[in-house]
Amino acid sequence: MSGDKNGRAAASSGKAAPAGSAAQNVDLPFSFSGFGAGRTVALIVLFILGAVVAVGGALVQGGWFPGGLLLALVGAIGLFHGGARIARGRAGAIAPAAGWVLAVILLTASRPEGDFLFGAGVGSYLFLLGGMAVAVMCATFWLPGQPPVPTARLGK
Where are the compositionally biased (Low complexity) regions (predicted)? Predict the structure, then answer.
């Protein structure tokens, strides 16, 4: 086993580093520190709300074509953006978007009887593509707020 001057194991050896080494202090680009029971329940509720908004939007967009399509997309925008604000992170937009996409996929599958909810019109395609685009925008454009400013001056 090879090591450096401080007794740490070399990365190419394939063996675990000894306790107290720098290999245990890995900075991840994400954090699991805020995932408690309440946050998990909130994300599950947002997932279910995403499915409900998808079913409602699918019914409304076909019934009143121009206005219903806009109403369905505004409902999706409100849920995805509101979820991101409530959860204070991207997970709040991703959870309802996942529920929305799952419900839409289940609604587009044709049944053996030949019934399906979405027609082959422009409105249904705009609803499907527009909802997915809105979900991606709300999940990627999330900008967290500035951290609180300490009242004391540091460094002096």
Answer: 8-21
